[in-house]
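Chain X:
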Amino acid sequence: MFDHLKNKFPIEDHLWENYIPYFNKLEIPARTVLLNEGEISERIFFIEKGCIRCWFNKDGKDLTLQFFLEDGMVASIESFRKKIPSPVTIETIEPSVLWYVDKKDMDVILKELIEIPELRNKFIDMIFERTFDYMKHFVSFIRDTPEQRYLNLLKENPQIIKRIPQHYIASFLGITSVHLSRIKNKLLK
């Protein structure tokens, strides 16, 4: 895991040695809630193995916003940064191996690393990428049909189709599992 992070955030080895004690390992089963909607996020998670989804409850229905896989990072960023209630629940889909950093420790790391321009730019790029993903998903709901959204997901993130249960994918696409089955059957013909 640290090799991946070292590649993503190339800093001197002695700095990494300072930060490694801030990382805590979790091995947890599927369907483990890491953060409930309405709680204040106090941790940021790095995924070594497994799959996580962010979702919220609307009138008793789970609506999935995003999926995160290996080598990804997940938190309720707004809640983590601003100490406001999280608008989402974060939950594992598969048994997972995660590394987390508490907010107070991440604040120390960021304060030190923000002084390194290359790393500051990488953090900014990561935040923008997540924003771009949300915007793309949002625009897709306005512009595309459910079938087009499914085809886009199949093209851009085939690992999600292979690994994630159909009812979560349907929720992410804004349709029912039955509608998703119809789309899949239509495309097979």
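Chain Y:
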Amino acid sequence: MHPAPLPLADRERAARHGVRPPRAVGLFGPPGTGKTTFARAIASRLGWPFVEILPSRLADEGNLAAALRSAFARIAELERVLVFIDEVEEIAPVRAEPAQPGGMHGVTNELLKLIPGFRERDERLLVCATNSIRSLDPAFLRPGRFDYLIPIGTPDRLARTAIWSRHTDGRPDVKVDELVAASELFTPADIEHAARIAAQNSFERDLGAGSRGSSEERAPGAGTADYLEAIAQCRPTVTPEMITQFESDITTHARF
């Protein structure tokens, strides 16, 4: 767990140090970097229900502001909860001035009014995620509404090592360090995709060997060469340009 939500997990210790547990946290970073996974991990650590609000599903109900208000009213009935809103820029974008008929002013205003009420009760946390924090309305990001704005980037070398070790089942014949070096800027989703390609290629090769009656013995599953070939076939989700923008957003917006 990121240090920011830790006061929620150890309230008594936090209280002794005068640390107030967060009520709302914003996550930002390139697509596929694991913002949803991060939010689920917090809920799991706390043992709280995880409730996801999908802006696209709210829009299907017609009146987006009313649907948002109704969703929060249902959530208010829960004793404890982590509420997750992904792609929050769909309901809290930078507001155009003057307000346009049928625009998002009303929806953004509704969300801004709902957050203070949500923050009044203990054992609840709002987590909002976006791929582009600069597209969010500045009023939405104020410290009074969000306690932390946490950047979630691509996994570093240590994290990639852990991810590749999981996907290769810790097999000693696979040179994980080579896979880590070859997959810089890969998101966890990119690594999973490459691992799936390598496994599929290994499976098809095994089928072909079986149909030819080959007696050649080799370790089961994909090898280092299979993974490296799969990595070479994949196009990373995150581009260097995205990283440049992300680093700029960290300087401008991060708060943790």
